[in-house]
Amino acid sequence: MARTLAMFTDVSLCIGCRACQVACKQWNQLAPEEPEWTGTYQNHAHFTDKSYRLVRFFEETDDKGQIKQWHMMSDVCKHCAQAGCLEACPTGAIYRTEFGTVNINQDICNGCRYCVSACPFGVVSFNRDTGTATKCTFCNDRIHNGLGPACAKACPTQSIRFGFRDDLAGVAEKRVEELRKHGYKDAQLYGADPKGDLGGLNAFFLLLGKPALYGLPEKPKLPQRNVLVDSLLSIGSALVVGLGALVAFRGRGGRGDA
Amino acid sequence: MLKECNGYATDDIVDKDDKPLYKKGEPLKTFGHLRDDGSTACGNWIYTGIYPEEGKNLALRREKPKEGDYLGHGWGFVWPANRRIIYNRASADPSGKPWSEKKKLIWWDAEAKKWVGNDVPDFSPTMAPDAPRAKDGPFKGISGTDAFIMNPHGLGQFFASIVDGPFPEHYEPFESPTKNLLSKVQNNPVAKVYNIGDLNKLGTPDKYPYILTTYRLTEHHAAGMSRHVPWLSELFFGHFAEIGPEMAKELGFQNGDMITVETPRAKIRVRALVTERIKPFVINGKKVYQVGIPWHWGYQGVMKSARGDITNDLVASLGDPTTFIQESKALLCNVRKEA
Question: Which residue in B215, B216, B219 has the most chain A C-beta atoms within 10 A of its own C-beta, making it the best mutation to test that interface?
């Protein structure tokens, strides 16, 4: 396997220009969609089958309701080392490339949408026209030709950087230190640690606050990890309900005899 | 394309002494070689020299500077002629000696009879410091001490020629919520006011109490071009006005409600985007709210989100007296929630 490729998104550098969103759509030839009202500059509200990149806009306010910071964060498929979508896929359409990225083979996908619900980040979307699941591929065709994804190429501030995962992790560490030194005490990396949640994310982030501020799960978890406990609990509750029913029926039967 | 910007010979060229200078198609090395007889072609003279020979792009240079070259001439290319500091004759005194040893740029070499130094001279390379005013040629009117060669007199200027100058003065916009506190004169008396009747009717703060500012958004270009690009048009829901939460509360509307914004010239319907980013002002002791409206929308566009009312209908046609650039980007308006 080749060295793992990764994308490092430094939100402290994002200016919210959305060049990444447009570059993504242009390279991948994704159709435009009529936007919905989100109450902010953000469009669209969430990832869709035609929007693989999404700049999230939100205003952070203090206790008095005064604005602290206007945040912009360019979000994308995380290409998790333990990918929920890949594990859930029953047809083998979702596969891992030699670069460690996760792709969906459109010819094999049967449109069951298990991956859609298995993604802890709400990235995978269902395309009604083709009947298949779609998501960001890190521009698979580009990276196999040494070009790097369209979004990273378009980013004017190098907020989105693309490269080998081990190199980028070093860059990210240094950047966090620098930001902390300059007073951004809550600056932190999200998904950069390969020993962390989901085995690390191949698209990792530098955040200026807690992940929850950006709508990211604090501890991302694969939904299928709940299956065993939930099944046991279901069996348990079925037993309790069954016993209760037995008790109830026995009581009524007694009255009927009398 | 860089070669076309740089310029190239369209024919074989010889110099004054009939020696071959360029073969047909060769890129030019300096803008001094450009000719007005069609034997050279050039996209823009300031870039000449950036592509001095086939395949060589000086903008890509990342050389370490040579000893003493603190201006880094081996790093990239600076137009024109890779000169780092313009009017660098001014770094030397009238006799041609640098004013400062530490910050010297160019100086007169009396033996070689030319200007030499750390930078590419922005001066006639062979004009001595004691040379009288040139009678003709590209340096006509310039003497050996006149560093500012682009001015006809060769001297620096404290003031540019503007209609309402030379001293700066603060004037309130034609529609202002306050009287001018810094000057007895309220508006610029020489502003360009277009005589277009009712379309230039001005409002007063009692009827139009809110400040309105219009502006652009990064994602859109001008007032129509990006409306025909669906990938850009989908980035905003549609026409909107940014309004602070206090003002929205006072007028009884919420984020996403339709509102009407009115000036004496026109009224438009937009969606209110209520945001903490828009703050009220305290002007002359009075709290005044501000409304911000981007002006990219119009009646034509490739999709629904690209179409909307025209912000510039609200704006009066007034110009800065020197450039005629719009004076009326700050104006007054009234806002009400749509029933």
Answer: B219
> Class of A5-221 per CATH?
alpha beta
Cα-flanking dihedrals φ and ψ of residue A35, to 5°? -75, 165
DSSP per position, B105-164: -EEEETTTTEEEESS--SS-TT--TTPPPBSSSTTBT--TT---TTSTT----SS---TT
Residue A244 exposure: Cα atoms within 13 Å on the Cβ side? 6
Query: How much is the pTM?
Result: 0.76
Cβ-contact B254, B248 below 8 angstroms: yes
Contacts of residue B69, Cβ cutoff 8 Å, sequence gap at least 6: B118
Average pLDDT over residues A206-225: 91
Contacts of B305 in chain A (CB under 8 A): 34-35
Q: Are B256 and A39 in contact (CB < 8 Å)?
A: yes
The amino acid occupying position B170 is: H
CA-CA distance, A108 to A111, in Å (whole number)?
A: 9
Nearest CA to A87 among A43, A119, A126, A41?
A: A119
Q: What fold does the segment set B192-337 form as a domain?
A: Barwin-like endoglucanases (2.40.40)
CATH 2.40.40.20 residue ranges of chain B are: 192-337
Question: Chain A: nearest CA to B297, how far in angstroms?
Answer: 15
CB B230 within 8 A of CB B302: yes
Residue type, B153: H
Q: What is the pLDDT of residues A23-66, one digit of tens each?
A: 999 999 999 999 999 999 999 999 999 999 999 999 998 888 88
pLDDT at position B16: 82
CA B263 – CA B281 distance, rounded (Å): 20
CA distances A233 to A32, A228, A247, Å, are: 45, 9, 21
Could B277 and A59 be called an inter-chain contact, meaning their C-beta atoms sit closer than 8 Å? yes
How far apart are the C-alpha atoms of A74 and A55, rounded to whole Å?
Answer: 4
Amino acid in the structure at residue B39 = S
Q: What is the pLDDT of residues A136-180, one digit of tens each?
A: 999 999 999 999 999 999 999 999 999 999 999 999 999 999 999
For residue B87, what are the contacts with CB-CB under 8 A and spacing of at least 6? Answer: B122, B147, B148, B149
Question: How far is Cα A28 from Cα B288, in angstroms, rounded to an integer?
Answer: 47
Q: In whole angstroms, what separates CA B135 from the centre of its chain?
A: 34
Across the interface, whether the CB atoms of A32 and B304 are under 8 A apart is answered no
